[in-house]
Amino acid sequence: MIYTITFNPSIDYIVEVDDFQLGKVNRTANEYILTGGKGINVSIVLNNLGIESQALGFIAGFTGSYIQSHLEENGIHTDFIDVQNGYSRINFKMKSHEESEVNGNGPMINENDLTKLIEKIKKLHEGDILVLSGSIPKCISDDIYAHIMKEINHLGIKVVVDATGNLLMNVLEYKPFLIKPNNHELEEMFHVKLSNQKDIVRYAKKLQEMGAKNVLISMAGDGALFVCENGKVYFCDAPKGQVVNSVGAGDSMVAGFIAGYVKTQDYLQAFKMGVATGSASAFSKDLATADEVELLLKTINEVEYEY
Ligand SMILES: Nc1ncnc2c1ncn2[C@@H]1O[C@H](COP(=O)(O)OP(=O)(O)OP(=O)(O)O)[C@@H](O)[C@H]1O
Ligand SMILES: O=P(O)(O)OC[C@@]1(O)O[C@H](CO)[C@@H](O)[C@@H]1O
């Protein structure tokens, strides 16, 4: 079974404003809401691709109830912990001349809530896949993903981590199966400016040396690089298309990679499926569907990188 954990689920309120004026009253040309949070997006896309998963994490208040019922209505299993403090956040995403986002901090999670989550995770089995995705509320220490990995290290579970900064750096010693920073997050982690693919590969390999088995570096419209545990390095161009909503493109890539890997056990197929799924989400209002992914997958060709 695949489990996703979202510490900080959200309702994403997406507004389109034709010509946003700072400091003025602006009116939307279009607006809609999506259920979000990185792990939840992974579960939604896996479901779209016909793969079962269970979404774990913390929800709170009326927004949390909406998130849970929306997922369940769409056939996604959930097992959230309902925390009694505040409400799940509403993240604001505005599309105008540029895309801007304001993400909330999320509800207060206490020790007791955390213990409940760890107890659930300890019941996972060998062969399960666990996805740890997204930011954590400020009240939680940035070694929490590492702590979770330490607790289940002996169980033979493949752990995928999509996070940044210390939250990601701290897990490396526990050898995650896959990590997926984007190129900007890679720069921030090493305090460097990476201006070409060769440099990006060099730093992705450092993450591998530090413990990650597979490293996927997404680069939005510039495609993605994959440093594989078999020693090979691949690059795929992103398919060309009209970007409609890139929120969740990275999560879709993670879901696509997992789906590809589960179906074929082949890393290259998984990588290509990841790129196709990321782009399919970027090219649509909502997250990628199986038909959209299948169409794009046919157009994707890899280049093996000589390093
Ligand atoms: N403008 C684009 N054109 C084509 N494909 C795109 C575009 N933006 C994203 N993608 C696809 O989605 C993948 C992931 O995108 P990106 O690098 O933006 O992830 P991310 O930064 O983790 O995104 P987010 O945090 O918004 O989920 C890319 O590798 C690519 O396949
Ligand atoms: O604040 P975080 O947890 O880093 O990111 C949260 C978020 O921006 O990520 C998803 C897209 O990747 C959205 O659904 C959600 O609003």
From TrEMBL:
Pathway: Carbohydrate metabolism; D-tagatose 6-phosphate degradation; D-glyceraldehyde 3-phosphate and glycerone phosphate from D-tagatose 6-phosphate: step 1/2. Residues 8-287 form the Carbohydrate kinase PfkB domain. Its EC number is 2.7.1.144. It holds the Pfam family PfkB. It catalyses: D-tagatofuranose 6-phosphate + ATP = D-tagatofuranose 1,6-bisphosphate + ADP + H(+); beta-D-fructose 1-phosphate + ATP = beta-D-fructose 1,6-bisphosphate + ADP + H(+). GO terms for molecular function: 1-phosphofructokinase activity. Keywords: ATP-binding, Kinase, Lactose metabolism, Nucleotide-binding, Transferase. It is an enzyme of class 2 (transferase). PROSITE patterns: PFKB_KINASES_2. Catalyzes the ATP-dependent phosphorylation of fructose-l-phosphate to fructose-l,6-bisphosphate. Belongs to the carbohydrate kinase pfkB family. Belongs to the carbohydrate kinase PfkB family. LacC subfamily. PANTHER family: 1-PHOSPHOFRUCTOKINASE, 1-PHOSPHOFRUCTOKINASE-RELATED. This is Tagatose-6-phosphate kinase. It comes from Massilimicrobiota timonensis.
